[in-house]
Amino acid sequence: MFADKDISKFNNIETPFYYYDTDLLQKTLHTCADAAAPYQFHIHYALKANFNTVLLNQIREIGFGADCVSAGEVRRAVEIGFDHKKIVFAGVGKSDKEINEALDLDIFCFNVESIQELAVLNELAGKKGKTAQVAIRINPNVDAHTHHNITTGLDENKFGINSWDLPECAETLKASPNLKFIGIHFHIGSQITNLDVYKNLCVRVNEFAAWFEDKGFKLKVLNVGGGLGIDYYNPDHQIPDFGSYFKIFNEFLTVKPGQEVHFELGRALVGQSASLITRVLYVKNGKKKNFVVLDAGMTELMRPALYQAYHKIENLSKQFPVDSSQIVKYDIVGPICESTDCFGKEVEQPESFRGDIFAIRSAGAYGEVMASKYNLRDAIRSVYNYEI
Ligand SMILES: Cc1ncc(COP(=O)(O)O)c(C=O)c1O
Ligand SMILES: N[C@@H](CCCC[NH3+])C(=O)O
């Protein structure tokens, strides 16, 4: 993304801002689409990772569908022009208002997360004289081996319907005339880098599919969710290994004729395509610690404060290689009134000065969309590679 370390293009732009590399996004999308094509896998992009309209337009153009988790996301997907027959709506707490809106927009499928939600959806669809297509989100109790806070497929997590509730779920489906049951849905967590985890998921999906088929249900869709991770330590490697990822599902998932396999990728598609560009406001050299104070903080990129997530930090104003005598360890912090407003502790950087431009890399997913107004901060802006 910054191979030439040419920052002259950033010099006259007010910081902080998200810098989006849409060329890299294009490359990533094409790599993913090409890797999925031989298996005829369907990709629904998870808007929660980033609902920036410039990105969404590119994602729609490549032919992916949309995985949404609120009526706002469904509305955004429709506005962008995603085919409504490629829009799915998941979420553990869909309100009646949201369900009604999605019914009106004739989306492809509701990924239902509780038996009570099935009953509500059946009732609301009935009032409109509609039939809602549903997939049941099952909690498969598969460990995603990722950060505890972003694991979603264990018994202790709130997501999906637990296996012991499936008999009641099946009865409810049979007794719901306004629902058409089309498949099963899973999502075990995010930032998954150990691909073996997906083999375990496939085994569970096969078991659950067989269970439903034994009960006389036909499954058209096997939706295995998303979660494929990116390499935060080497953002220059940029494009995730979609080939190995899809190969696992091709090998380990039992797919019957006529069945579709759906994926809901978010981070893997957009994560490497943006950096948070920020300037050094102050450098504080203390006895115990040196601090670089940036003009971006947890209000612009929350992941380090929320999950102690690692993002590579680069001082773009310095030419590399830097003499080792000029390397200093800094705590790299933001301006927010919170001690957790820290992008990295004891980070080795070339000696840095007020005005230096820093890039916080791999910020395309769960970055801009998780920004907040805390401390009444100005809204973060976006800048695109083709503009500068
Ligand atoms: C149901 C569902 N699908 C898809 C995703 C996208 O996940 P990721 O960005 O890790 O691919 C998420 C978020 O974790 C999710 O909750
Ligand atoms: N927001 C998280 C991931 C959660 C994904 C949504 N279920 C992150 O920044 O990594």
Characteristics of this structure?
10 helices, 2 domains, 17 strands, TIM Barrel, 388 residues, Lyase, Ornithine Decarboxylase, Chain A, domain 1, elongated
Task: Determine the CATH superfamily of the largest domain.
Answer: Alanine racemase
Total of domains: 2
Mean pLDDT: 94
N-end to C-end Cα span: 14 Å
Secondary-structure arrangement, i.e. CATH architecture of the largest domain: Alpha-Beta Barrel
Enumerate the distinct ligands.
pyridoxal-5'-phosphate, lysine
The CATH topology of the largest domain is given as TIM Barrel
Computed Rg: 23 Å
Strand content: 15-25%
Shape: elongated
Discrete helix count: 10
Largest sheet: 8 strands, mixed
Catalytic activity: meso-2,6-diaminopimelate + H(+) = L-lysine + CO2
GO molecular function: diaminopimelate decarboxylase activity
Subunit structure: Homodimer.
Enzyme class: lyase
